Amino acid sequence: MSVVSIEREGEVAVVTVDNPPVNALGQALRQGLWDAVATLDADPDVRAVVLICAGRTFIAGADVREFGKPPVEPHLPDVVNRIEGAVKPWVAAIHGSALGGGFEVALGCRFRVALDGASVGLPEVGLGIVPGASGTVRTPRVAGAAAAVDLVTTGKPVKAAKAQAMGLVDAVMTGDLRAGAVAFARAALGAPLPLPASERPVADPGADFWAEQQTAVAKRAKGEAAPLRALACVQKAVQAPFAEALAFERATFLDLRGSDQAAALRHVFFAERAAPRPAHLGDAKLLALRTAGVIGGGTMGAGIAAALRDAGLPVVLIERDAEALARGLANLQAIFDGGVKRGKLTPEQAAARMAGVSGSTDYAALADTDLVIEAVFEEIGVKRAVFAELARHCRADAVLATNTSYLDPRAIAEGLANPGRFIGLHFFSPANVMKLLEIVPTPETAPETLATGFALARALGKIPVQAGICEGFIGNRILKRYRAAAEALVRQGVAIAEVDAAMRGFGFAMGPFEAQDLGGLDIAFLQREGARAAGQEVPETLGDLLVRAGRKGQKTGGGWYDYAPGDRKPQASARVAEVLAAVITAGPALDRAAIAERLVGEMAAEGEAILAEGIALSPSDIDLVEIHGYGFPRWRGGPMHYTARKG
Ligand code: 3HC
Ligand code: NAI
């Protein structure tokens, strides 16, 4: 079947695009649109054209899969120009999302109407590029410079009502979009047509505006190139004739399309879309997820319960006694209150979230839950006692999950009846915010349980990554190697602050040492001490020396750095220099780029080991873990992509 078909409703032709899944603008679709203009211009019975899409969405953009290859005719800017230049006016009828090239096609149409709930936007910066088919040039001519800057430099789509207020769409409709758009087209024929977007005047907001935007966009973009280049395109569009600005935009687009950042962001785009439905799950049956239980209302339990409530699941929270339960419920309340304070929830929504939580100290309250997630102390005895209770009280088919960070899930599940329903679900703190979910099956986990873990991730809006069993699974194992490598640099004389600055320069929000000061050095210390007590050979780390000197991080007024009371700004510490003096030797000087290369290389090397052992199933899974769990800069693509691209 052709991707573009034409029907007639009297004097209005309806052009339907049908290119599943998201009507992306591959070559066949571009050609189909190109040909449709000629066909309809030549048809004397047609006076106007409605462009509408089949399936879940309007055209969602250029076909990202074509970006690694040479452009093929007809090029999208020419298609958009041709639609705009058509003898008969075109009306874009938008449902779902009109994004990137899809919105550019709509801008080529003389009118845009949208279904209530639809959205439009230019998300190209998220792929490391700028709009490449007049998005930066036509948008300011339709909605003004400020709106265009906002749209292209943030990449955030706007909903139909807001788009109408901004002048991006002409009408918002409910009900039958096709009928509404055809009626709109007929009515439009009764009045003089507006100017095509390319011919509309645009006001220059002036030098101060551009200077302010430069500063603001640079600050938000950190190391990303595309947002500032997109801003430059809008400025050009406002200050130069249409054709000149279009050429400038196209050159910028083609330049960025081949860049490392764009390749990295495309890699992440596809990795994120592949992650929720890995092929190896096959068609394993999904277990129903209607109700959930959480054991432990501490940092993780409260966050997990909040995530479950955000997804609409009723939650039973179990704690060990009444006092701990009250604390757990208060933790949960604090999360929702925070949501209200930040404007993410209305007070009514927060109250409804809380109303869906019932607290108990009696496991009998879990008799009919479909899924229980354990988040109690990281001690094997405590966890095993919890699962013994769960086995006694939960339905035999309920999924039972542990949030353990380091313990062996096999040991936690030992002796459990129906071990096929047991699985590790490793959330990251804060669990209602962080996107990553490591899914850790044991050898006995049933395929349905594994598939249900992935279904849970989808329901919670998380990025699931399957991990095999080893100490720290994927993420914490790489973190350990990263920290050890950072310490090795300090041992050879690199300043602590230089290491942190190097990683910030690479794109992390924080370096490894300041991050430890924030989270506390004692957790990892206690874990190492536990292993030592169990007879394992664990070499002494610099972190151990600091904790023994009473330096556990910001909470004790200092860790790797000193902190003035009430101030989170790290200050180099004479005391730390003293504590570490005996173990530091002078090594070769390293600049920041070399430091970052070294540490990212160590991450990738651990990633390789993890792959070789089958702990991770693909390099892109490791990249997703680092990006969504550990702050690796998205535009670098993750340690595996970054290292592979560097060769
Ligand atoms: N190109 C190629 N494939 C795409 C695609 C695109 N632009 N957008 C989505 N897909 C694919 C996905 O990879 C996925 O494939 P799979 O089923 O084989 O895994 C499938 O379409 C469905 O995607 P989602 O799971 O994301 O579907 P949702 O329904 O959740 O979301 C969407 C739909 C909101 C349209 C979302 O897919 C999306 O945001 N897509 C990207 C939009 C975008 O970035 N457009 C700009 C592209 S750049 C551009 O247009 C340049 C131009 O200026 C020249
Ligand atoms: P926490 O100490 O904040 O909370 C643990 C909670 O469990 C406490 O509220 C405690 O009262 C409760 N509890 C203890 N024994 C119980 C029992 N027998 N029955 C019911 N409740 C009981 O600990 P946190 O940080 O929330 O960690 C919980 C688990 O999550 C641990 O396994 C930890 O390794 C894991 N984890 C922690 C992360 C973190 O960043 N804190 C990240 C990912 C996993």
List how many beta strands DSSP finds: 17
CATH architecture of the largest domain: Alpha-Beta Complex
Largest sheet: 8 strands, mixed
Distance between the first and last residues' Cα: 43 Å
Question: What's the CATH topology name of the largest domain?
Answer: 2-enoyl-CoA Hydratase, Chain A, domain 1
> Are any ligands bound, and if so which?
3-hydroxybutanoyl-coenzyme A, 1,4-dihydronicotinamide adenine dinucleotide
Helix content: 40-55%
Spans of at least 5 consecutive residues with low confidence:
none
**Quick one: CATH class of the largest domain?**
Alpha Beta
Average pLDDT level: 96
Number of domains: 3
User: Which class of secondary structure composition applies to the elements?
Assistant: alpha/beta
Fourth-level CATH superfamily of the largest domain: 2-enoyl-CoA Hydratase, Chain A, domain 1
What is the percentage of strand-forming residues? Answer: 5-15%
Strand order of the largest sheet: 12-11-10-13-14-15-16-17
Cα-based radius of gyration, to the nearest Å: 28 Å
Q: Based on CA inertia axes, which overall geometry fits? A: globular
Count of runs of 4 or more consecutive helical residues: 26
Domain 3-hydroxyacyl-CoA dehydrogenase C-terminal: 472-563
GO molecular function: (3S)-3-hydroxyacyl-CoA dehydrogenase (NAD+) activity; enoyl-CoA hydratase activity; isomerase activity; NAD+ binding
Keywords: Fatty acid metabolism, Isomerase, Lipid degradation, Lipid metabolism, Lyase, Multifunctional enzyme, NAD, Oxidoreductase, Peroxisome
Domain 3-hydroxyacyl-CoA dehydrogenase NAD binding: 292-467
